[in-house]
Amino acid sequence: MSHSTRLTPLSAVNSGPLKGRIRVPGDKSISHRSLMFGAVTLGETRISGLLEAEDVLGTAEAMRTLGATVMRTGTGTWTVTGLGVGGLLEPAKVLDFGNAGTGSRLTMGLVGGHHIAATFVGDASLSRRPMGRILDPLRRMGVDVIARAGDRIPLTLKGPETLVPITYRVPMPSAQVKSAVLLAGLNAPGVTTVIEPVATRDHTERMLEGFGADIAIEISADGVRTIRLQGRPEFKPQEVTVPGDPSSASFAIVAGLIVPGSDLTVENVLLNPLRTGLFTTLLEMGADLKIENERVSGGERIGDVHVKYSELRGVTVLAERAPSMIDEYPILSVAASFAHGETVMLGLEELRVKESDRLSAVAHGLSVNGVPNREGEASLTVTGGAQGLGGGLVPTHLDHRIAMSFLILGMAGSEPVTVDDTDTIATSFPNFLDLMRGLGAEFAAAKDA
Ligand code: S3P
Q: Counting beta carbons within 10 angstroms of the beta carbon of residue 416, is it exposed (0 to 12), middle (13 to 18) or buried (19 or more)?
Protein backbone atom coordinates (compact mmCIF):
# COMPACT_ATOMS: atom_id res chain seq x y z
CA MET A 1 0.00 0.00 0.00
CA SER A 2 2.84 2.39 0.68
CA HIS A 3 3.86 4.60 -2.21
CA SER A 4 7.26 4.27 -3.82
CA THR A 5 9.73 7.03 -3.12
CA ARG A 6 9.58 8.24 -6.73
CA LEU A 7 7.24 11.19 -6.91
CA THR A 8 4.86 12.05 -9.75
CA PRO A 9 4.83 15.84 -10.10
CA LEU A 10 2.31 17.79 -12.18
CA SER A 11 1.53 21.41 -13.03
CA ALA A 12 -1.90 22.99 -13.34
CA VAL A 13 -2.09 25.93 -15.72
CA ASN A 14 -4.45 28.86 -16.12
CA SER A 15 -7.63 27.26 -17.46
CA GLY A 16 -10.62 28.47 -19.44
CA PRO A 17 -14.07 28.66 -17.84
CA LEU A 18 -14.90 25.41 -16.04
CA LYS A 19 -18.30 24.10 -17.11
CA GLY A 20 -20.38 20.99 -16.71
CA ARG A 21 -21.93 18.59 -14.22
CA ILE A 22 -19.92 16.01 -12.32
CA ARG A 23 -20.36 13.45 -9.56
CA VAL A 24 -17.52 12.97 -7.12
CA PRO A 25 -16.84 9.56 -5.52
CA GLY A 26 -18.53 8.37 -2.34
CA ASP A 27 -17.97 9.91 1.06
CA LYS A 28 -14.78 8.60 2.66
CA SER A 29 -16.06 8.68 6.24
CA ILE A 30 -19.26 6.76 5.43
CA SER A 31 -17.38 4.32 3.17
CA HIS A 32 -14.95 3.27 5.91
CA ARG A 33 -17.75 2.91 8.43
CA SER A 34 -20.03 0.89 6.14
CA LEU A 35 -17.31 -1.76 5.67
CA MET A 36 -16.62 -1.87 9.42
CA PHE A 37 -20.28 -2.10 10.41
CA GLY A 38 -20.80 -4.80 7.79
CA ALA A 39 -17.90 -6.78 9.27
CA VAL A 40 -19.56 -6.98 12.70
CA THR A 41 -23.02 -7.79 11.36
CA LEU A 42 -24.20 -11.35 10.74
CA GLY A 43 -25.58 -11.67 7.19
CA GLU A 44 -24.95 -9.66 4.05
CA THR A 45 -24.66 -5.87 4.12
CA ARG A 46 -24.85 -4.30 0.66
CA ILE A 47 -23.09 -1.06 -0.10
CA SER A 48 -23.49 1.10 -3.17
CA GLY A 49 -21.48 4.20 -4.03
CA LEU A 50 -18.49 3.01 -1.97
CA LEU A 51 -15.40 5.15 -2.43
CA GLU A 52 -12.95 2.91 -4.26
CA ALA A 53 -9.80 4.75 -3.22
CA GLU A 54 -6.68 3.46 -1.48
CA ASP A 55 -7.72 4.51 2.04
CA VAL A 56 -11.03 2.66 1.86
CA LEU A 57 -9.62 -0.35 -0.01
CA GLY A 58 -7.21 -0.64 2.93
CA THR A 59 -10.16 -0.90 5.30
CA ALA A 60 -11.81 -3.50 3.04
CA GLU A 61 -8.63 -5.58 3.16
CA ALA A 62 -8.36 -5.14 6.94
CA MET A 63 -11.95 -6.37 7.42
CA ARG A 64 -11.11 -9.43 5.28
CA THR A 65 -8.00 -10.07 7.37
CA LEU A 66 -10.22 -9.89 10.47
CA GLY A 67 -12.46 -12.63 9.04
CA ALA A 68 -15.26 -10.86 7.17
CA THR A 69 -16.09 -11.73 3.57
CA VAL A 70 -15.82 -8.54 1.55
CA MET A 71 -16.66 -8.67 -2.16
CA ARG A 72 -16.85 -6.16 -4.96
CA THR A 73 -19.88 -6.91 -7.11
CA GLY A 74 -19.71 -3.94 -9.50
CA THR A 75 -18.52 -0.34 -9.71
CA GLY A 76 -18.96 0.99 -6.19
CA THR A 77 -21.17 -1.93 -5.18
CA TRP A 78 -19.85 -4.21 -2.49
CA THR A 79 -21.13 -6.84 -0.11
CA VAL A 80 -19.82 -7.54 3.36
CA THR A 81 -20.76 -10.76 5.12
CA GLY A 82 -19.86 -10.18 8.72
CA LEU A 83 -19.29 -12.16 11.88
CA GLY A 84 -21.56 -10.37 14.35
CA VAL A 85 -20.61 -8.00 17.18
CA GLY A 86 -17.63 -9.49 19.01
CA GLY A 87 -17.04 -12.03 16.22
CA LEU A 88 -13.89 -10.70 14.52
CA LEU A 89 -11.00 -13.19 14.27
CA GLU A 90 -7.36 -12.73 15.15
CA PRO A 91 -5.60 -11.63 11.95
CA ALA A 92 -2.83 -13.82 10.53
CA LYS A 93 -0.96 -10.80 9.15
CA VAL A 94 -0.42 -7.16 9.99
CA LEU A 95 -3.13 -4.63 9.14
CA ASP A 96 -1.61 -2.12 6.69
CA PHE A 97 -3.57 1.12 6.55
CA GLY A 98 -1.26 3.01 4.22
CA ASN A 99 -2.07 6.73 4.57
CA ALA A 100 -5.46 6.30 6.27
CA GLY A 101 -6.00 7.93 9.66
CA THR A 102 -9.72 7.13 9.76
CA GLY A 103 -9.31 3.51 8.65
CA SER A 104 -6.59 2.80 11.19
CA ARG A 105 -8.03 4.67 14.15
CA LEU A 106 -11.58 3.35 13.84
CA THR A 107 -10.28 -0.19 13.34
CA MET A 108 -8.20 0.21 16.52
CA GLY A 109 -11.47 0.77 18.36
CA LEU A 110 -13.09 -2.22 16.72
CA VAL A 111 -10.12 -4.54 17.38
CA GLY A 112 -9.73 -3.26 20.95
CA GLY A 113 -13.23 -4.53 21.62
CA HIS A 114 -12.24 -8.08 20.70
CA HIS A 115 -10.14 -10.60 22.62
CA ILE A 116 -7.63 -10.76 19.76
CA ALA A 117 -4.22 -9.29 18.98
CA ALA A 118 -3.58 -7.20 15.86
CA THR A 119 -0.65 -5.15 14.57
CA PHE A 120 -1.21 -1.85 12.75
CA VAL A 121 1.23 -0.42 10.22
CA GLY A 122 1.09 2.42 7.68
CA ASP A 123 3.09 4.78 5.50
CA ALA A 124 5.53 7.48 6.65
CA SER A 125 2.71 10.02 7.09
CA LEU A 126 0.50 7.73 9.19
CA SER A 127 3.52 6.61 11.24
CA ARG A 128 4.06 10.22 12.32
CA ARG A 129 0.48 10.86 13.44
CA PRO A 130 -0.52 10.75 17.12
CA MET A 131 -2.34 7.59 18.16
CA GLY A 132 -2.34 8.30 21.93
CA ARG A 133 -5.71 10.00 21.52
CA ILE A 134 -7.15 6.58 20.55
CA LEU A 135 -4.96 4.43 22.80
CA ASP A 136 -5.69 6.38 26.02
CA PRO A 137 -9.41 5.52 26.16
CA LEU A 138 -8.74 1.99 24.87
CA ARG A 139 -6.24 1.41 27.70
CA ARG A 140 -8.92 2.55 30.16
CA MET A 141 -11.26 -0.04 28.67
CA GLY A 142 -8.67 -2.74 29.39
CA VAL A 143 -6.88 -2.99 26.02
CA ASP A 144 -3.19 -3.94 26.09
CA VAL A 145 -1.06 -1.70 23.88
CA ILE A 146 2.45 -2.35 22.67
CA ALA A 147 3.58 0.83 20.93
CA ARG A 148 6.83 2.64 20.36
CA ALA A 149 7.57 5.84 22.27
CA GLY A 150 5.04 8.59 21.69
CA ASP A 151 2.24 6.15 20.83
CA ARG A 152 2.86 6.02 17.10
CA ILE A 153 2.40 3.07 14.74
CA PRO A 154 3.58 0.37 14.15
CA LEU A 155 1.71 -0.80 17.25
CA THR A 156 -0.03 -3.91 18.50
CA LEU A 157 -3.33 -4.06 20.36
CA LYS A 158 -4.69 -6.90 22.40
CA GLY A 159 -8.27 -6.64 23.57
CA PRO A 160 -9.24 -8.06 26.99
CA GLU A 161 -11.57 -10.99 27.53
CA THR A 162 -14.21 -8.58 28.78
CA LEU A 163 -14.00 -4.89 27.99
CA VAL A 164 -14.76 -2.26 30.64
CA PRO A 165 -17.51 0.12 29.49
CA ILE A 166 -16.29 3.66 30.27
CA THR A 167 -17.47 7.23 30.28
CA TYR A 168 -15.09 9.24 28.12
CA ARG A 169 -14.94 12.96 27.54
CA VAL A 170 -13.24 13.53 24.20
CA PRO A 171 -10.38 16.00 24.87
CA MET A 172 -10.19 17.43 21.33
CA PRO A 173 -12.90 17.74 18.66
CA SER A 174 -12.36 14.43 16.85
CA ALA A 175 -14.91 12.16 15.23
CA GLN A 176 -12.21 9.52 14.98
CA VAL A 177 -11.67 9.41 18.74
CA LYS A 178 -15.41 9.44 19.45
CA SER A 179 -15.95 6.66 16.92
CA ALA A 180 -13.09 4.48 18.17
CA VAL A 181 -14.51 4.52 21.71
CA LEU A 182 -18.02 3.74 20.47
CA LEU A 183 -16.80 0.93 18.21
CA ALA A 184 -14.86 -0.62 21.11
CA GLY A 185 -17.90 -0.14 23.36
CA LEU A 186 -19.98 -2.18 20.93
CA ASN A 187 -18.59 -5.32 22.53
CA ALA A 188 -18.55 -4.11 26.15
CA PRO A 189 -21.18 -5.37 28.58
CA GLY A 190 -23.23 -2.36 29.68
CA VAL A 191 -23.26 1.24 28.57
CA THR A 192 -20.32 3.10 27.03
CA THR A 193 -20.72 6.87 27.27
CA VAL A 194 -18.91 9.42 25.14
CA ILE A 195 -19.13 13.09 26.05
CA GLU A 196 -18.39 15.39 23.17
CA PRO A 197 -18.03 19.07 24.16
CA VAL A 198 -17.91 20.17 20.50
CA ALA A 199 -20.02 18.38 17.90
CA THR A 200 -18.13 16.53 15.15
CA ARG A 201 -19.40 14.49 12.18
CA ASP A 202 -22.02 12.06 13.43
CA HIS A 203 -21.88 9.27 10.83
CA THR A 204 -20.92 6.65 13.43
CA GLU A 205 -23.93 7.49 15.62
CA ARG A 206 -26.28 7.48 12.63
CA MET A 207 -24.99 4.13 11.42
CA LEU A 208 -25.05 2.59 14.90
CA GLU A 209 -28.72 3.46 15.04
CA GLY A 210 -29.30 2.31 11.45
CA PHE A 211 -27.75 -1.12 12.12
CA GLY A 212 -29.96 -1.53 15.20
CA ALA A 213 -27.92 -0.47 18.24
CA ASP A 214 -29.56 1.03 21.30
CA ILE A 215 -28.00 4.51 21.29
CA ALA A 216 -29.23 7.68 22.96
CA ILE A 217 -27.89 11.17 22.31
CA GLU A 218 -28.54 14.06 24.64
CA ILE A 219 -27.57 17.60 23.65
CA SER A 220 -27.29 20.15 26.46
CA ALA A 221 -28.17 23.83 26.11
CA ASP A 222 -24.49 24.66 25.53
CA GLY A 223 -24.15 22.05 22.80
CA VAL A 224 -22.35 19.31 24.76
CA ARG A 225 -23.34 15.90 23.39
CA THR A 226 -23.64 12.86 25.62
CA ILE A 227 -23.81 9.65 23.61
CA ARG A 228 -24.81 6.47 25.40
CA LEU A 229 -24.37 3.13 23.67
CA GLN A 230 -25.69 -0.13 25.06
CA GLY A 231 -23.09 -2.80 24.32
CA ARG A 232 -23.53 -6.07 22.46
CA PRO A 233 -26.41 -5.21 20.16
CA GLU A 234 -27.63 -7.59 17.52
CA PHE A 235 -26.96 -5.84 14.26
CA LYS A 236 -29.17 -6.40 11.22
CA PRO A 237 -27.58 -6.25 7.75
CA GLN A 238 -28.33 -3.04 5.88
CA GLU A 239 -28.39 -1.58 2.40
CA VAL A 240 -26.04 1.40 2.58
CA THR A 241 -26.05 4.07 -0.13
CA VAL A 242 -22.96 6.26 0.13
CA PRO A 243 -23.53 9.86 -1.05
CA GLY A 244 -20.85 11.98 -2.78
CA ASP A 245 -18.07 13.27 -0.54
CA PRO A 246 -18.47 16.99 0.25
CA SER A 247 -14.74 17.21 0.99
CA SER A 248 -13.92 15.94 -2.50
CA ALA A 249 -16.66 18.12 -4.05
CA SER A 250 -15.03 21.18 -2.47
CA PHE A 251 -12.14 21.17 -4.94
CA ALA A 252 -14.35 21.54 -8.01
CA ILE A 253 -16.66 23.95 -6.17
CA VAL A 254 -13.83 26.34 -5.28
CA ALA A 255 -12.38 25.97 -8.79
CA GLY A 256 -15.76 27.07 -10.19
CA LEU A 257 -15.76 30.13 -7.93
CA ILE A 258 -12.24 31.35 -8.77
CA VAL A 259 -11.84 30.54 -12.49
CA PRO A 260 -13.52 33.43 -14.39
CA GLY A 261 -16.61 32.51 -16.42
CA SER A 262 -17.14 29.13 -14.71
CA ASP A 263 -20.57 27.60 -14.14
CA LEU A 264 -20.58 24.05 -12.79
CA THR A 265 -22.59 21.63 -10.68
CA VAL A 266 -21.45 18.83 -8.42
CA GLU A 267 -24.34 16.39 -8.08
CA ASN A 268 -25.33 14.09 -5.23
CA VAL A 269 -23.25 15.73 -2.48
CA LEU A 270 -23.67 14.80 1.19
CA LEU A 271 -25.06 17.85 3.04
CA ASN A 272 -24.90 16.64 6.63
CA PRO A 273 -24.76 19.94 8.60
CA LEU A 274 -21.69 18.72 10.49
CA ARG A 275 -19.84 18.60 7.14
CA THR A 276 -20.94 21.74 5.33
CA GLY A 277 -18.91 24.46 7.10
CA LEU A 278 -17.04 25.28 3.89
CA PHE A 279 -20.25 25.96 1.97
CA THR A 280 -21.46 28.30 4.73
CA THR A 281 -18.11 30.10 4.70
CA LEU A 282 -18.11 30.46 0.90
CA LEU A 283 -21.61 31.96 1.05
CA GLU A 284 -20.36 34.46 3.63
CA MET A 285 -17.55 35.32 1.19
CA GLY A 286 -20.17 36.21 -1.43
CA ALA A 287 -20.10 32.98 -3.45
CA ASP A 288 -22.82 32.34 -6.01
CA LEU A 289 -23.48 28.86 -4.58
CA LYS A 290 -26.88 27.23 -4.69
CA ILE A 291 -28.10 23.90 -3.40
CA GLU A 292 -30.46 22.31 -5.90
CA ASN A 293 -32.54 19.16 -5.93
CA GLU A 294 -32.23 18.74 -2.16
CA ARG A 295 -33.42 15.36 -0.92
CA VAL A 296 -32.94 12.77 1.82
CA SER A 297 -31.30 9.42 1.06
CA GLY A 298 -30.21 6.76 3.55
CA GLY A 299 -31.03 9.11 6.42
CA GLU A 300 -28.68 11.85 5.12
CA ARG A 301 -29.48 15.16 3.40
CA ILE A 302 -27.96 15.32 -0.08
CA GLY A 303 -28.20 17.76 -2.99
CA ASP A 304 -26.52 19.21 -6.07
CA VAL A 305 -24.15 22.13 -5.50
CA HIS A 306 -24.25 24.69 -8.31
CA VAL A 307 -21.60 27.42 -8.42
CA LYS A 308 -20.72 30.26 -10.75
CA TYR A 309 -17.57 32.36 -10.82
CA SER A 310 -17.85 34.96 -8.04
CA GLU A 311 -16.03 38.00 -6.73
CA LEU A 312 -15.22 36.74 -3.26
CA ARG A 313 -14.37 38.85 -0.21
CA GLY A 314 -12.26 37.91 2.80
CA VAL A 315 -13.99 36.85 6.03
CA THR A 316 -13.10 35.71 9.53
CA VAL A 317 -13.80 32.02 10.12
CA LEU A 318 -14.25 31.46 13.84
CA ALA A 319 -12.81 28.45 15.67
CA GLU A 320 -16.27 27.02 16.34
CA ARG A 321 -16.71 26.36 12.63
CA ALA A 322 -13.56 24.21 12.40
CA PRO A 323 -15.07 20.76 13.11
CA SER A 324 -17.61 21.11 10.28
CA MET A 325 -14.92 21.96 7.70
CA ILE A 326 -11.78 20.47 9.22
CA ASP A 327 -10.56 18.93 5.95
CA GLU A 328 -11.47 22.00 3.87
CA TYR A 329 -9.00 24.62 5.14
CA PRO A 330 -6.42 23.95 2.39
CA ILE A 331 -9.00 24.59 -0.35
CA LEU A 332 -10.57 27.50 1.57
CA SER A 333 -7.10 29.06 1.67
CA VAL A 334 -7.00 28.82 -2.13
CA ALA A 335 -10.40 30.54 -2.39
CA ALA A 336 -9.11 33.20 0.04
CA SER A 337 -6.12 33.83 -2.26
CA PHE A 338 -8.52 35.19 -4.89
CA ALA A 339 -10.83 37.08 -2.50
CA HIS A 340 -10.62 40.80 -1.85
CA GLY A 341 -9.08 41.50 1.55
CA GLU A 342 -8.03 39.29 4.40
CA THR A 343 -9.40 35.91 5.39
CA VAL A 344 -8.62 34.98 8.98
CA MET A 345 -8.98 31.31 9.98
CA LEU A 346 -8.95 30.52 13.68
CA GLY A 347 -8.86 27.37 15.79
CA LEU A 348 -6.68 25.35 13.42
CA GLU A 349 -4.60 23.35 15.93
CA GLU A 350 -5.89 20.02 14.61
CA LEU A 351 -4.51 20.83 11.14
CA ARG A 352 -1.03 20.21 12.50
CA VAL A 353 -1.73 16.46 12.93
CA LYS A 354 -3.46 15.60 9.66
CA GLU A 355 -1.83 13.66 6.78
CA SER A 356 0.78 16.44 6.97
CA ASP A 357 1.17 19.52 9.15
CA ARG A 358 -1.42 21.15 6.92
CA LEU A 359 -1.09 24.58 8.48
CA SER A 360 2.58 24.92 7.55
CA ALA A 361 2.15 23.01 4.26
CA VAL A 362 -0.59 25.45 3.16
CA ALA A 363 1.30 28.54 4.37
CA HIS A 364 4.42 27.42 2.49
CA GLY A 365 2.47 26.56 -0.69
CA LEU A 366 0.80 29.99 -0.64
CA SER A 367 4.09 31.79 -0.06
CA VAL A 368 5.91 30.12 -2.96
CA ASN A 369 2.99 31.11 -5.21
CA GLY A 370 3.00 34.77 -4.22
CA VAL A 371 0.03 34.76 -1.83
CA PRO A 372 0.73 36.92 1.23
CA ASN A 373 -0.11 34.97 4.42
CA ARG A 374 0.67 34.75 8.12
CA GLU A 375 0.91 31.40 9.89
CA GLY A 376 0.08 31.51 13.61
CA GLU A 377 0.29 28.68 16.15
CA ALA A 378 -3.33 27.74 15.36
CA SER A 379 -4.40 30.31 12.79
CA LEU A 380 -3.81 31.38 9.23
CA THR A 381 -4.38 34.77 7.66
CA VAL A 382 -4.45 35.00 3.89
CA THR A 383 -4.46 38.28 1.98
CA GLY A 384 -6.23 37.78 -1.32
CA GLY A 385 -6.23 39.67 -4.57
CA ALA A 386 -2.47 39.88 -5.21
CA GLN A 387 -1.52 39.94 -8.90
CA GLY A 388 0.54 37.36 -10.74
CA LEU A 389 -0.16 34.35 -8.51
CA GLY A 390 1.45 30.99 -9.21
CA GLY A 391 4.85 29.93 -10.43
CA GLY A 392 5.74 27.89 -7.32
CA LEU A 393 6.64 24.29 -6.60
CA VAL A 394 4.59 22.91 -3.69
CA PRO A 395 5.84 20.03 -1.51
CA THR A 396 2.82 17.85 -0.72
CA HIS A 397 4.23 15.76 2.18
CA LEU A 398 2.14 12.65 1.31
CA ASP A 399 -1.02 14.75 1.68
CA HIS A 400 -3.71 14.32 -0.99
CA ARG A 401 -5.58 17.49 -0.03
CA ILE A 402 -2.46 19.64 -0.34
CA ALA A 403 -1.87 18.23 -3.84
CA MET A 404 -5.46 18.83 -5.01
CA SER A 405 -5.77 22.28 -3.42
CA PHE A 406 -2.68 23.70 -5.09
CA LEU A 407 -3.58 22.24 -8.48
CA ILE A 408 -6.82 24.23 -8.17
CA LEU A 409 -4.79 27.36 -7.37
CA GLY A 410 -2.90 26.83 -10.63
CA MET A 411 -6.12 26.81 -12.66
CA ALA A 412 -6.83 30.41 -11.65
CA GLY A 413 -3.24 31.66 -11.30
CA SER A 414 -1.29 33.63 -13.88
CA GLU A 415 1.62 31.18 -13.77
CA PRO A 416 1.45 27.37 -13.55
CA VAL A 417 1.47 25.80 -10.08
CA THR A 418 3.44 22.58 -9.68
CA VAL A 419 2.86 20.01 -6.97
CA ASP A 420 5.72 17.60 -6.30
CA ASP A 421 3.49 14.52 -6.20
CA THR A 422 0.06 13.49 -7.45
CA ASP A 423 0.15 9.79 -6.45
CA THR A 424 -1.33 10.54 -3.03
CA ILE A 425 -4.52 11.82 -4.67
CA ALA A 426 -5.45 8.14 -5.13
CA THR A 427 -5.93 7.81 -1.36
CA SER A 428 -9.26 9.67 -1.50
CA PHE A 429 -10.14 10.81 -5.05
CA PRO A 430 -8.63 8.62 -7.79
CA ASN A 431 -10.45 10.27 -10.72
CA PHE A 432 -9.81 13.86 -9.58
CA LEU A 433 -7.63 14.78 -12.59
CA ASP A 434 -10.04 13.22 -15.11
CA LEU A 435 -13.08 14.93 -13.60
CA MET A 436 -11.32 18.30 -13.52
CA ARG A 437 -10.14 17.84 -17.13
CA GLY A 438 -13.74 17.09 -18.10
CA LEU A 439 -14.75 20.49 -16.68
CA GLY A 440 -12.03 22.22 -18.71
CA ALA A 441 -9.01 22.23 -16.39
CA GLU A 442 -5.60 22.05 -18.02
CA PHE A 443 -2.51 20.33 -16.68
CA ALA A 444 1.03 20.16 -18.00
CA ALA A 445 4.05 17.99 -17.28
CA ALA A 446 6.05 19.56 -14.46
CA LYS A 447 9.27 21.08 -15.75
CA ASP A 448 11.32 21.90 -12.71
CA ALA A 449 10.06 19.54 -9.98
C1 S3P B 1 -12.92 11.78 10.04
C2 S3P B 1 -12.68 12.68 11.06
C3 S3P B 1 -11.77 13.82 10.93
C4 S3P B 1 -11.40 14.11 9.48
C5 S3P B 1 -11.08 12.87 8.73
C6 S3P B 1 -12.28 11.92 8.72
C7 S3P B 1 -13.85 10.66 10.26
O8 S3P B 1 -10.59 13.54 11.66
O9 S3P B 1 -10.31 15.00 9.42
O10 S3P B 1 -10.73 13.15 7.38
O11 S3P B 1 -14.26 10.00 9.29
O12 S3P B 1 -14.20 10.39 11.43
P13 S3P B 1 -10.45 13.86 13.24
O14 S3P B 1 -11.32 12.97 13.99
O15 S3P B 1 -8.98 13.64 13.53
O16 S3P B 1 -10.83 15.31 13.36
A: buried
**pTM for this entry:** 0.97
Catalytic: which of 327, 399, 420, 421?
327
pLDDT per position as a tens digit, 94-107? 999 999 999 999 99
Q: Which atom of ligand 1 sits closest to the CA of residue 173?
A: 16
The alpha carbon of 364 is separated from its chain's Cα centroid by a whole number of angstroms, namely 22
Instruction: Give yes or no: 304 in active site.
Output: no
Q: How confident is the model over 313-326, as pLDDT tens digits? A: 999 999 999 999 99
* Residue pLDDT, tens place only, 198-239: 999 999 999 999 999 999 999 999 999 999 999 999 999 999
Q: Is the CB of 44 under 6 A from ligand 1?
A: no
Nearest CA owner, ligand 1 atom 16:
174
Residue 236, sorted as left (phi over 0), alpha (psi -120 to 50) or beta, turns out to be beta
- Is the CB–ligand 1 distance for residue 358 below 6 Å? no
Q: What domains appear along the chain, each with residue ranges and CATH number?
A: 10-26+243-448 (3.65.10.10), 28-230 (3.65.10.10)
